[in-house]
Amino acid sequence: MSTFGILFALAHSLPETILALGVLILILIGALRPRAELLITELAVGILGLALLSLFSGRSNAVLFGGAFIDDGFGRFAKGLCYAGSIVTLLIAHNFLVREKINKFEFPVLVLLSTLGMSMLISADGLIALYLGLELMSLALYVVAAFHRDDAKASEAGLKYFVLGALSSGMLLYGASLLYGFAGTVSFAGIASAVSGTPSLGVIFGLVFLLAGLAFKISAVPFHMWTPDVYQGAPTPVTAFFASAPKVAAFAVVVRVIISVFPGVAPQSQGIIIFLSILSMVLGSFAAIGQQNIKRLMAYSSIGHVGFALVGLAAHNETGVAGVLFYLSVYVVMVLGTFAAILSMRIDGKAVENISDLSGLARTDGSMAFYLSMLMFSLAGVPPLAGFFAKFYVFDAAVQAHLYGLAVIGFLTSVVAAYYYLRVVKIIYFDEPVAAFDKAPATLRVVLAAAGLFVLLLFAYPAPFVAATAAAAKTLF
């Protein structure tokens, strides 16, 4: 490769280069300088911030490394969400890790490694690159899920996630091998050309197994079985991480596969997405009703929101993809703000997780009660908050694609889901107060306030956000 070619490749893979070099530097610092956890966390945030800034260099779209890596507007937008999610995770995690006496330098390193895997996954333009990115992301997640080694619940969560993750990887590999066998290539463009027209049974089986493996990562029903236990058992900052950045990365690659790899078999792929969407919306809406643990409630909420986002993808058009990106953006903000509130739930230095512990919060901490209530209203899709517009855009895309039944089911399940979000608000404002929470660290309060204000005020000027998602979606078509 010429010098120009190397510089060209480095320019288009600059975020990944920054993350990879950052991981090596942090490992060296951690090994050579004991008790440097805070420094390494700060450096990790800086590295992620630098990678985030590198996305805005104004470069054109390009395909690199023999067609294995693609740098386009869609990928840059999704990476930006992932990097932002990772940054906020590190910011809200530090105090928790210190209090639980698990503040090890490996945590920010693992978050960085997982983010590197997400970045590679989002830009994958072939089956091999997709699998490598997915496994790099997942292997770090298996470890952070069980990062609290002395906690039996965390160890159980890590083991469950690892075993079921290995199963999903096997399904994905089997689907990839079928697609390679019938298409004769691993590149997405080659597969798209080979499977156009009337698909063979082998291609359909390959598509099903590939999407089954990816559906596990986004916790879509019926591949959701790990989500409630892992969300509840893992350390709370890890749960916040799972619910934000990795979900965006996995969803982005699902969108890329459906739109770029299988445009010639749209009816078949659309049927699978509709099936996953309906099951996820229904289970996420009804199974959360009886939950008493707020982290478990957020797990079922996550499953339901995956179903709503899939409504936009089922439309299989540019409007639908833009709606999915808008939905994911708003969802990341809502979930990170909510988990900042959950991390603030401490009484006499001990973390509490029951929804009943929020009783009368409005009388003991009015600002936290207000911002958390705004996030609950937004998750429920109450206008004019950001969550309402997120659902409106995906439902509108479904209606434009004449998927009226899917839009109606989405609306009805959204109404059902509103019950358990509004129940939290009722407990906060109308139940008798229990013991007041300890004063939360400033970082948690800032993240909670920023998320609450975002969902409350987005309606005032949503145009730049909508334009950014539309421009990112356009690069896939």
UniProtKB/TrEMBL annotation:
Membrane topology note: Multi-pass membrane protein
Subcellular location(s) of the protein: Cell membrane; Endomembrane system; Membrane
GO cellular component: endomembrane system; plasma membrane
Chief localisation class: membrane
This protein's UniProt keywords: Cell membrane, Membrane, NAD, Quinone, Translocase, Transmembrane, Transmembrane helix, Transport, Ubiquinone
EC category name: translocase
NADH:quinone oxidoreductase/Mrp antiporter transmembrane domain boundaries: 124-415
Membrane-crossing residue ranges in chain numbering: 6-31, 38-57, 77-98, 105-122, 128-147, 159-183, 203-226, 238-259, 271-290, 297-315, 321-347, 368-389, 401-422, 442-461
Entry-linked InterPro entries: NADH-Q_OxRdtase_suN/2, ND/Mrp_TM
Any one Pfam family match given in the protein's UniProt record, by short name: Proton_antipo_M
Catalysed reaction, written as an equation: a quinone + NADH + 5 H(+)(in) = a quinol + NAD(+) + 4 H(+)(out)
EC code: 7.1.1.-
Record has Nucleus as a keyword: no
GO biological process, one term: ATP synthesis coupled electron transport
Single annotated GO MF: quinone binding
Family: Belongs to the complex I subunit 2 family.
Assembly: NDH-1 is composed of 14 different subunits. Subunits NuoA, H, J, K, L, M, N constitute the membrane sector of the complex.
Function statement: NDH-1 shuttles electrons from NADH, via FMN and iron-sulfur (Fe-S) centers, to quinones in the respiratory chain. The immediate electron acceptor for the enzyme in this species is believed to be ubiquinone. Couples the redox reaction to proton translocation (for every two electrons transferred, four hydrogen ions are translocated across the cytoplasmic membrane), and thus conserves the redox energy in a proton gradient.
Designated name of the protein: NADH-quinone oxidoreductase subunit N
Origin species: Methylovirgula ligni
